[in-house]
Specification:
The chain is α+β, with helices and mostly antiparallel strands and about 600 residues long. The protein has 17 helices and 15 strands.
Length: about 600
């Protein structure tokens, strides 16, 4: 057997082997059409090599022409498969070039069967045997067909398409594929085009051996696909290891971890999720996540899940809202949930990190109670400082009631009773009693101790100012302090606790009075102002005292900080706690001339009642 037969047979066998292998791969993975296209390329290259072997051994012009007549069919399949492979695998190459090349190649096949004896020769007059590598090979003698230029144009357009695809992939940064797939196809395609032109034009006298250029293309493409398969296997191994590590991390997480697919079904749950919700893992997997949501919240959760999957991103669920989960026994548990999207080949998944905040809620409630107790202690302390003035405030109406009652007794002891006089005395008793009752009522409200209110009312800060001024009226007189007010009209209401806001204003007024204790009475003036400012209601208490040392400006609101010998350091600290709880701000400034001003501002919620 000659070496020509052996070499071309090896070529055919190699191409058929690769074609069979990748056809089997495609049969297992039907979605991977790249493998099917490569199988077609390899099979076409094998058929071209078989035709070439027959051409080398042809001994008559008729036999040579018949073989050349059928050869373009295999070339047509190879070209269409190569173009489709390049578009699908490299995702490059201009579509109009691809369609034009496929169209021209189809036209060459049609022309090849329309004209005789074939596309390449108008007439084959003889077949000549030439020595080639120690053996003889057949070459045709005849007149080249002008239609062969169509085949050359097709090859040139194909080369332009492959060059364009190669440049695109190179610029994209995938240089390995650009060189192996695009570069190799362009290089061997150029060899095929050059050999065909030189042989048909009679410039060189050698048999056709373009099949080895096609073999080079097949080997390069097969190498790249094999390399991709190895990388995919390595990646799958890494993913498997990564998935195992991921599961271990999830299992060791201190919070409940639950993974949900796009249909809302639980696909993963850790041990802490079992403890938090009381379900076993088997009871959770494959079940809808809604089973862990209280029934009263389920409809809203479905809408939230749909919106989240439309715009997935790592973020907390229900920011600034209270979230609850439902245990197996039907009880509810307060939770915080963080969401993280995970993109997989099977669709989007969402990993939820769920933290049971029951203990935190209890701690917050206990802290609120302690703050409430502290505020109550500060109120009692402040009222204690006003006790003398309050006692004097009550003494007047009580003394008046006693005097009027004794006068009424004396009138009634006479036989001729003046009923009009008695009525006036009784009216005066009622008035004084109402005055004393009003003082006692304000004191009871201020000294009241109750649980912190979850729901607050709409409060008119101007009314709060008037109530506190009335409560301190006697104390202000005893301290020789004059109070001026500058209250804005039509002030919007704020949401808050009326008693706590009264306490804030009371503390600020007492502090202002104490700051002016050593001043002349003509200088002892307080100015209380309210105004609407930048979407909030602002209240200011201005005194004419000695001001606040700059070094203490940042400390005046700290707990237990005081400049008074007998002070507890709670008043201003409680004020800040109350204002912070009302989502407001409190601060102090020194006046230009003398004294200081304490300000606080609260966001308003609506238009307050008219003044």
């Amino acid at each position: 057997m000659s070496w020509i037969t052996i070499v071309w047979s090896i070529n055919v066998g190699a191409c058929l082997t690769l074609a069979t292998m990748y056809l089997a791969v495609w049969c297992r993975e039907r979605q991977s059409f790249v493998h099917l296209l490569f199988s077609c390329i390899a099979a076409s290259a094998a058929l071209i090599a078989a035709y070439e072997l027959q051409l080398i051994r042809a001994d008559t012009p008729e036999a040579y022409g018949a073989i050349l007549r059928w050869r373009p069919l295999s070339t047509w399949v190879l070209v269409l498969s190569l173009v489709a492979f390049t578009r699908l695998y490299l995702r490059a190459g201009r579509s109009w070039m691809a369609l034009s090349a496929c169209g021209l190649q189809t036209l060459t096949v049609i022309v090849n069967f329309v004209f005789t004896p074939n596309l390449y020769y108008g007439e084959i007059t003889a077949v000549r045997q030439i020595p080639w590598g120690g053996e003889t090979a057949s070459i045709p003698l005849g007149t080249p067909s002008p239609w062969s230029l169509l085949n050359q144009a097709t090859l040139l357009l194909l080369l332009a398409f492959f060059v364009d695809a190669t440049i695109t992939v190179w610029r994209r940064g995938d240089r390995e594929r650009a060189l192996i797939v695009g570069g190799t196809t362009t290089f061997f395609g150029a060899i095929v085009a050059a050999q065909f032109a030189l042989v048909i034009l009679g410039i060189i006298e050698v048999p056709f051996f373009a099949s080895f250029a096609y073999l080079g293309i097949v080997v390069a493409l097969g190498y790249q696909l094999c390399n991709d398969a190895v990388r995919a296997a390595d990646l799958a191994s890494e993913l498997q290891v990564g998935e195992e590590r991921f599961r271990r991390v999830v299992e060791a997480a201190p919070s409940a971890m639950i993974m949900v697919n796009h249909e809302g079904q639980i696909t993963l749950a850790n041990l802490q999720a079992e403890k938090t919700f009381g379900y076993s893992r088997e009871e959770l997997l494959g079940r809808p996540i809604e089973m862990l949501v209280p029934e009263r919240l389920r409809s809203g959760y479905r809408d939230f899940r749909h919106d989240y999957l439309c715009h997935p991103q790592a973020r907390p669920m229900g920011a600034e809202q209270e979230l609850f989960g439902q245990r197996k026994d039907g009880s509810e548990v307060p939770v915080e949930i963080g969401l993280s999207p995970i993109h997989t080949s099977n669709g989007p998944l969402v990993l939820a990190s769920i933290v049971d905040i029951t203990q935190r809620k209890l701690a917050e409630l206990e802290a609120a109670r302690q703050h409430h107790d502290l505020a109550h202690l500060a109120r009692v302390s402040t009222v204690g400082e006003l006790s003398n003035s309050l006692a004097h405030e009550l003494t007047h109406p009580i003394t008046a009631i006693l005097s009027n009652a004794q006068a009424a007794q004396r009138f009634l002891a006479h036989d001729d009773v003046d009923l009009d006089e008695v009525r006036d005395i009784l009216n005066d008793i009622v008035t004084q009693d109402q005055r004393a009752g009003e003082v006692i009522h304000r004191l009871r409200l201020l000294l009241r101790k109750g649980e912190p209110q979850a729901q607050c009312d709409d409060v008119d800060l101007n009314e709060v100012i008037r109530d506190v001024v009335k409560l301190m009226r006697s104390d202000l007189i005893n301290r020789n302090v004059t109070v001026d007010t500058d209250l804005a009209q039509n002030l919007p209401a704020v949401t808050g606790d009326r008693v706590q806001l009264q306490q804030v204003l009371l503390n600020l007024m007492v502090n202002g009075c104490e700051a002016m204790a050593d001043h002349y009475s003509s200088e002892c003036r307080l100015l209380i102002a309210s105004q609407l400012q930048n979407g909030a209601v602002r209240v200011s208490v201005t005194d004419r005292g000695g001001g606040i040392p700059e070094k203490n400006m940042e400390q005046v609101f700290e707990r237990f900080f005081t400049t008074k010998k007998e002070g507890m350091g709670l008043g201003l600290s409680v004020c800040r706690t109350i204002i912070d709880a009302h989502r407001g701000k409190i601060w102090a400034t020194n006046n230009v001339g003398s004294g200081a001003t304490f300000h606080f501002r609260l966001p308003f919620v609506g238009v307050g009642k008219r003044q």
